[in-house]
Amino acid sequence: MTSHLARARMNPTRAQLHVWPRHARVHVMFAPDPYRCDDPHRLWPLIEAIRLGSVACCDAKGAIVVSHVPIVLDRTRGPLGTLIGHFDRRNPHCAALAQADEAVVSFLGPDSGVSPDWYGTAPRVPTWLYVAVQARGRATMVTDVAGLRDSVVRASVLALAEGSPWSADGVEDYMAKLLPHIVGFEIPLHRLEGQLRLAQQNGPDDRARVERALSAGSLQQRRMAEAMRRFADDLPVMA
């Protein structure tokens, strides 16, 4: 029920970037047909909502390295888009990503557990609903000043409060001091797939009960209910 990759217990939406050494071969994400989604126009907004990436890879010795970075999606570059981010130059991830044949970027969120007593039918067991996206491509490292500045500005915009007057033009000198200390990366995507586990295995009444319970819950649960409503008309139903 949960992803094959460990879920970071983060705020409403999360991303995980997994990069494997050159000899490794990564299997495609397991997603039964009723849950599978391969439409980039439905998956792009999810990537853009998740933003923060948990970056995991194996270094040249096979040790696992994990970092956390904001991920920016450029929909206009390539048929499936391009992912953009940057690392602290001291981070060993720079070398690992530069030598990897393929990067796998997993985005997870929103998600929520479902209590058995929410259903109108029995027997039931607890389960988990979630939205996940997995993207693949080979990374290119970015070290030129113009490319690095673009990466930093794009990532900075993700963190701005609505209506914030901040502009990169006002901090050029400060940014010029930062750029030598980072390394950027771009990942043109050659595969994009998603999994939408939104209670499709239940009948209409039970799905409605789950949605109502989530709508009355925490912020995370309300976001899960919103996802159920958002995709309701497009979901293949198993029940």
Q: Give the fraction of residues assigned to helices.
A: 25-40%
Domains, number:
1
- Let me know the number of strands: 10
Mean pLDDT comes to: 84
Q: Output the number of helix runs.
A: 6
Query: So what's the CATH class?
Result: Mainly Beta
Q: Roughly how many Å is the radius of gyration?
A: 19 Å
Instruction: Using the coordinates shown, work out and report the CATH topology.
Output: Pnp Oxidase, Chain A
Distance between the termini: 17 Å
Largest sheet features:
10 strands, mixed
Structural class of the secondary structure composition?
A: alpha+beta
| H/E topology pattern | EEHEEEEHEEEHHEHH
Task: Flag low-confidence runs.
Answer: 1-13
**General form:** elongated
What does this entry look like structurally?
It is a single chain. The protein is α+β, with helices and mostly antiparallel strands. The chain has one domain: Electron Transport, Fmn-binding Protein, Chain A (Pnp Oxidase, Chain A, Roll). The protein contains 6 helices and 10 strands, in the order ββαββββαβββααβαα. The two termini are 17 Å apart. Residues 1-13 have low confidence and may be disordered.
Brief characterization of the structure:
Pfam families: FMN_bind_2. This protein is an alpha+beta fold and 239 residues long.
